[in-house]
């Protein structure tokens, strides 16, 4: 890619989340969060992601009583809490104009139900945002990225509980009031559809805490509470800070029919629609009829009041953000077909695509199709908030990481994005590589699944110097950012 064009104001950046990098899980008054209870398990079944998808109350109690941090990856992260100035300086040198992260709810309201916010926690974000401002980097902030206070799981009913949704709104208003001057883009909930795939890490839902309930119904009701809380936050921002934008965010995994059998095509379309249901609600402002019919078939009676409907209708998202990593195929009859994985979901293997070391298939054209789909559907600006490759990297004896595979991945995806803007007329606000420094994997709690442009010397068990090294992909991105032409 030599020279390319992007529209004026296009944001080039990198993305991460508080729980995967910050560490300092109990420093300066931070409370324990659900992420701090996810332990690296060397025997985990990576195919099923069981370790972080299904937590029990007993496991949470064990976590609560263990005050160590070494094998609890998200307790130490990559110590961004103490390295943030060094990391931001390195990232600023890339030439990025945006940095996406989240604010850890448990740093601001350590138990979720505290009367007052924790000033020491706020001070960390004051300093972080000031540092970004110094380099003219715009922060994009997610309010909930897999890190709610554990107290809200053990002493309330997590996101199933309306009181918890109210506490989230209170937390959100606190940080929006404090940072609206510098943070102009907000996302209420990371990958809001993820509650269906991993209800513990997305919403603190632990099945054994709902003994007399249909757990699927619990998940959907919690989903509704997340939509209502998000709409309240959208309302608050639009009313008080008209120059600030707030978006919807979904996990966009492209789904193809396994072959040209129309029945498989229909199935693929249905699976995609199920994921677009989530952005439909936040962008169009109402539940798609097909979702309500599906729930009815399952015997789930979602409690949606008239005032909920009004709130959703009147408070919709300004832009549509998404993460994109890979694609899958689907078929009506999957007997005998090879299975593949993609971001905590499974599908049928696609013989036309290469596969990452973690079994996710690499599909840049899938990104272009997603962009077309979402733009045709909503005609709202899009934001690619996450795109990257998790891979094993090797640090050479001279302190280098030759990650040509990551460069190939990023280059091909960025090319498709540029084509989509230039040839398909899709409006895109920005693009963030998932990966600032390396960080702890959300799904597997591994350190060895590396996404960063900057290598961190740390292993899965929490051993290492935390020293940072610039990868080849870092230099490649820097070069790319230096060669763009801005057009009106
Ligand atoms: C996204 C999440 O779904 O995927 C990130 O928002 C996550 O938190 C990323 O890290 C990659 O997934 P994983 O499981 O490989 O870390």
Automatic annotation (TrEMBL):
GO biological process, one term: carbohydrate catabolic process
Keyword Hydrolase: yes
Matching Gene3D superfamilies: Glycosidases (3.20.20.80)
GO molecular function, one term: beta-glucosidase activity
PROSITE patterns hit by this protein: GLYCOSYL_HYDROL_F1_1, GLYCOSYL_HYDROL_F1_2
Residues at the active site: 386
Originating species: Lactobacillus hominis DSM 23910 = CRBIP 24.179
Protein name per UniProt: 6-phospho-beta-glucosidase
Taxonomic lineage: Bacteria, Bacillati, Bacillota, Bacilli, Lactobacillales
PANTHER family, sorted: 6-PHOSPHO-BETA-GLUCOSIDASE ASCB-RELATED (PTHR10353:SF122), GLYCOSYL HYDROLASE (PTHR10353)
A Gene Ontology cellular-component term: cytosol
Keyword Hydrolase: yes
Coiled coil stretches, renumbered: none
Similarity remark: Belongs to the glycosyl hydrolase 1 family.
A Pfam family annotated for this UniProt entry: Glyco_hydro_1
Domain of life: Bacteria
Entry keyword set: Glycosidase, Hydrolase
